[in-house]
Amino acid sequence: MLQINNIKVAYGKTVAIHGLSLHVEQGELVALVGANGAGKSTILRTVSGLLHPLEGTVTFEGKDISRMYPDKILKMGVAHCPEGRHVWGRMTVEENLIVGGHVLPKSELWAQVEKMYDMFPRLKERRTQLAGSMSGGEQQMLAIARVLMTNPKFLMFDEPSLGLAPVIVEQVMDTISQINRESGVTILLVEQNANMALAIASRGYVIESGLMALEGSAAALRNNEDVRRAFLGR
């Protein structure tokens, strides 16, 4: 479904990704782990069109999207839930959802809003509340619902557990797993909590300094001594 082939990505003169390749098959939940600054978020930004590779290609469903703009990539079914939630704090929960669904035909918009309320009952309770007044966990759920409003085929999450209490992290991970399992949405997950990410993923990649260090089944990576020492704290 997604194929990244030997991409090189830079911020100005600073190269962040050095000839990296990976793939995600339809229906998979794939984890992308690594230390801060390894280049994980850069990969997601490149897939979503916020950055363009200097070399190499990014293809989605066989189409080269390396030079496409984000709005066109979004309309193809590729959605990006960024680090830090970034909900519109001065807008209500419902207004956030409506804006998130701007790519949908008007005839489908409200049905999708109701679908999000069924999936996230707490958001329905808070539909008229300003998003900025909600807790971090509630804002993360809104961020997830807002990106699901686009009805994506392929969904990327960037550090969804960042700044959340452990019990909320478990809820967020359960939600991501449920989206993949029940809705069939393909997911690429960047996550600082490598243990939890690999626990719900089928496969994983380990990135170091913009290079691919390891790849394999999630179970194999969780049992790899180098991965355990570097990312799992054991």
Mind explaining what this structure looks like?
The chain is of the alpha/beta class and 234 residues long. 39% of the residues lie in helices and 26% in strands. The chain has 10 helices and 10 strands. It has helices at 40-47, 70-75, 93-100, 106-119, 121-125, 136-148, 166-183, 194-200, 218-222, 225-232; strands spanning 2-11, 14-24, 29-34, 55-60, 63-64, 78-81, 154-158, 186-190, 203-208, 211-217. The strands form 2 sheets. A 6-stranded mixed beta sheet has the order 6-7-8-3-9-10, with helices on both faces. Strands 2-1-4-5 form a 4-stranded antiparallel beta sheet, with helices on one face. Helix 3 (93-100) packs parallel to helix 6 (136-148).
Name its key features.
six-stranded mixed beta sheet, about 230 residues, alpha/beta, globular, about 25% strand, four-stranded antiparallel beta sheet
The 3D shape can be described as: globular
Q: Taking strands numbered 1, 2, ... along the chain, how are they ordered across the largest sheet? A: 6-7-8-3-9-10
What Rg do the Cα atoms give?
17 Å
Structural class: alpha/beta
The end-to-end distance, rounded to whole angstroms, is 34 Å
Topology, number of strands:
10
Topology of this structure?
Elements: E1 2-11, E2 14-24, E3 29-34, H1 40-47, E4 55-60, E5 63-64, H2 70-75, E6 78-81, H3 93-100, H4 106-119, H5 121-125, H6 136-148, E7 154-158, H7 166-183, E8 186-190, H8 194-200, E9 203-208, E10 211-217, H9 218-222, H10 225-232
Helix pairs in contact: 3-6
